[in-house]
Design goal:
The chain is built from nine helices and eight strands. It is α/β, with parallel strands linked by helices. Strands 1-2-3-4-5-6-7-8 form an eight-stranded parallel β-sheet. Helix 7 links the parallel strand 7 and strand 8. Helix 8 crosses helix 9. The longest helix has 18 residues.
Length: about 260
Amino acid sequence: MMIDSHCHLADETYSSDLSDVVARARDAGVERVLVVLEAGNEREAAQAGRLQELWPETRVSIGVHPHQAHQFADDPQRAATMVREQFERTPAARAVGEIGLDYHYDYSPRDVQQAVFRAQLVLARELGRPVVIHTREADADTLAILRDERAADVGGVFHCFTGDQQLADAALAIGFHVSFAGIVTFPKAASLREIAMRIPADRLLVETDSPFLAPVPHRGKRNEPAHVARVVGTVADARAADPAELARLTSANFHTLFRP
């Protein structure tokens, strides 16, 4: 059995065939998924509720993504309050995220991203729940804020890891997990596979980040949790491990971190 540790099954792209997507995931041996929800998005919350009925093992993470941080420029604490309120009415909630910094698109001013990020890290410590980190072209600031806000107290994961060995080592040094998505299967991702090979066995996770970044041979198509098997297989090959054992290992790590 496998676990997809990060997907967006509440995205509207699955609204018409959600039950089929769930069936394919289960048929592929996926035990459960962690669905990432945008705080305050009622449409996503409703679809997550429907998903919970179809697949009771589903768990969720709730957060304000850096792309949406600008909505809270006048009061960054309001972002944390929104997450807290939704967390309290969502029994399946297990993590705060995805949160972090994105300096590639800069859809939100960087100082606002940082303030919203900090507010949610404080909330995560108050809730005693791990965080799901998004970082793009902002690694130094992401790490500095994680250290400042004592994120090691709750732990978390650098999701869809595409960084270098230095970032992986820094994430591990503060007690975080590292998760690999479909990018690790791409032909030009040899350096990423080398990093996957070096991650300690108890800090490794796998994900799809569905509907994005479908692995080879599905690249360019809509991604879905069933395809996490491709990620497992590629990471297992990189580590010279048995895929079934890697699936068991990453599932155990998921349970340790998210306490589902």
